[in-house]
């Protein structure tokens, strides 16, 4: 019965941007501070940042809600929606699309392909081994142990906001870092234990 009563209530970190920036900022080649819009998102509100076109790469920077101990998110996806808007033809470049730092480590993920011009695209980045690399896109593949180590003490989470060589604006919506439902796993384990106990008692009759 104790297993049935147990529950690990870990809060999901989610930003829908329906009422504001929710603490998100931007760094890099930024022409203006991160801006919130009540419309134009996927759907509803969203945030965006224009490129200053002087060099460097612009990133959306997550607030405190996405930092700290996020160990429970291991094995689940980090999800978000991106859109880029740029004038003229496409002149894309490749860079680290998601960067997570923590416990003295840094890991990077390539979400290829880049979002198309003027259209929202939803991404789901698995928080487990397979696509993450240490430090750069050419670094060694991150192991599950390294990913768990980073998630245990996140100090920085960044999502790329710039994809075009030249003027462009990056748009972000619906970011979610959802932990594994530990309570559901405990409930399933408790039910299984009760069934085993019930069968054992019936066999003794």
Descriptive labels:
six-stranded antiparallel beta sheet; single chain; Jelly Rolls; 205 residues; alpha+beta
CATH class call: Mainly Beta
Could you estimate the helical fraction of the residues in percent?
A: 10-25%
Number of strands: 12
Summed over residues and divided by their number, the pLDDT gives a mean of 88
The CATH topology: Jelly Rolls
Largest sheet: 6 strands, antiparallel
Uncertain runs are 1-9, 183-204
Radius of gyration: 21 Å
**Number of self-contained structural domains:** 1
End-to-end distance: 23 Å
Summarize the entry for a quick read.
The chain has 205 residues and is an alpha+beta fold. It has three helices and twelve strands.
Q: How would you characterize the overall build of this protein?
A:
- This protein has 205 residues and is α+β, with helices and mostly antiparallel strands.
- The protein has one domain: Jelly Rolls, CATH 2.60.120.
- Strands 1, 3, 4, 6, 9 and 12 form a 6-stranded antiparallel sheet that branches. The protein has a 6-stranded antiparallel sheet with strand order 2-5-11-7-8-10, with helices on one face.
- A hairpin with an 8-residue loop joins strand 3 and strand 4.
- It is globular, with a radius of gyration of 21 Å.
- The N terminus and C terminus are likely disordered.
């Amino acid at each position: 019965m104790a297993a049935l009563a147990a529950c690990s209530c870990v809060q999901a970190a989610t930003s829908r941007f329906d009422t504001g920036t929710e603490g998100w900022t931007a760094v890099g080649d930024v022409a203006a501070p991160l801006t919130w819009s009540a419309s134009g998102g996927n759907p509803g509100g969203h945030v965006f940042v224009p490129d200053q076109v002087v060099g460097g790469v612009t990133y959306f920077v997550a607030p405190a809600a996405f930092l700290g101990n996020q160990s429970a998110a291991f094995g689940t996806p980090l999800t978000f929606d991106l859109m880029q808007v740029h004038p003229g033809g496409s002149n894309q470049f490749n860079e680290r699309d998601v960067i997570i730092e923590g416990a003295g480590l840094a890991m990077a993920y390539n979400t290829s392909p880049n979002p198309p011009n003027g259209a929202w695209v939803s991404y789901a980045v698995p928080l487990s081994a397979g696509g993450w690399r240490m430090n750069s896109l050419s670094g060694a593949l991150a192991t599950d142990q390294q990913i768990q180590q980073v998630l245990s003490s996140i100090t920085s989470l960044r999502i790329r906001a710039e994809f075009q060589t030249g003027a462009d604006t990056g748009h972000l919506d619906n970011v979610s870092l959802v932990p594994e439902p530990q309570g559901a796993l405990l409930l399933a384990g408790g039910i299984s234990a009760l069934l085993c106990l019930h069968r054992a008692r019936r066999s003794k009759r």
